[in-house]
Amino acid sequence: MSGIASVIPGPRVGILAALVLIAVTAPASAFDPLQRAERAVRRSREAMAAGDTTEAIDEMLRAQALEPDDPRIRHALGEIFYQSQQYSSAERIFDALRDQETTDGSSADFRISDLLYNTANVAFRQKDYEKALEYYTEALLRSDPAQPADEDLLHNLELTQAMVESSESQSTDGGDSQDQQDQQDQQDQQDQQDQQDQQDQQDQQDQQDQQDQPDSTESSSAAPDTNSVAQGDSLQT
Question: Is pTM, for the whole model, over 0.90?
């Protein structure tokens, strides 16, 4: 990962700013709930600016309850969950929005590339680098070709690619080490078996040698009796 930063930029948060305009374009019959949702969104933004993520989430949930079908509010809620490091909650929201876009082709006031980018950020934080790489790549492919290349996206894509390659390399090295250990264990077992076989052979040889030695009692009875010499064999003077 030479020359690559070890952190990734945060999510795309332009949705929060855009949401304050929802009441302006609302039809007259729905003005009141939209106005209340707009106020909840504004309070959520203020709470985030003050570092109160709990209050920010509560206010955005209130806005969502008032306008449950507005994907901008749901996306903004996912951004707040991400910034408060509640990655599983952010993932559920981003996945649902992505599935909705895939199913009905609905278009919100945020770019699908931003949704893919934020989904990839969540996967990266959860150390699912292959999934992150998939969504960063898709976000790049679905970016507006008329716009300049997104530097944050390119940075994250490069960083994630390096993390995937590093993970694959460690996995390969780990497999080689395990193979070497298995071979060493097999060699040790073979050496132990060889030593045992040699010991068994030595024991059998020792036992055979003991059986081949003559009996000491039989050897004594077969020896000549030097005291029983015939009288006639005595030296004559």
Answer: no
